[in-house]
Design brief:
Layout: E1 2-7, E2 10-13, E3 18-26, E4 32-39, E5 46-52, E6 57-59, E7 67-72, E8 77-82, E9 91-100, E10 106-110, E11 114-119
Parallel strand pairs: 2-11
Antiparallel strand pairs: 1-3, 3-8, 4-5, 4-9, 5-6, 7-8, 9-10, 9-11
């Protein structure tokens, strides 16, 4: 029902910036949460930031003040602006969408992942 396509990953030096984009297509209901997770080498996947269709956002403590999540509902696209990147930000970043289809049923979708590598 939903496909997520990510872009914007790459190699950047410490202190630099990257902007990730995630374009969603398919059956996108107005009630949803879109966000970003990441999986550093050898570690578990972790939440980076999330944004609800009502305008609320949430960030991991490790990225607060450096990363900003934004969304364009008209384009069904979510962005992650990453500033002041650190070596520990190196990870595969995954776009995620949770779509609320009914009061009791939701769908959970993932993008393919995009590599972000920060050199120090």
């Amino acid at each position: 029902q939903v496909q997520l396509v990510e872009s914007g990953g790459g190699l950047v030096q410490a202190g630099g910036s990257l902007n990730l984009s995630c374009a969603a297509s398919g059956s996108i209901f107005s009630r949803n949460v879109m966000g970003w997770y990441r999986q550093p080498p050898g570690k578990q996947r972790e939440l980076v930031a999330a944004s609800t269709s009502r305008g609320n956002s949430n960030y991991a403590d490790s990225v607060k003040g450096r990363f900003t999540i934004a969304r364009d509902n008209a384009k069904n696209t979510v962005y992650l602006q990453m500033n002041n990147l650190k070596a520990e930000d190196t990870a595969v970043y995954y776009c995620n969408a949770v779509i609320q289809y009914s009061s009791s049923f939701s769908g959970n979708y993932w993008g393919q992942g995009t590599q972000v590598t920060v050199s120090s």
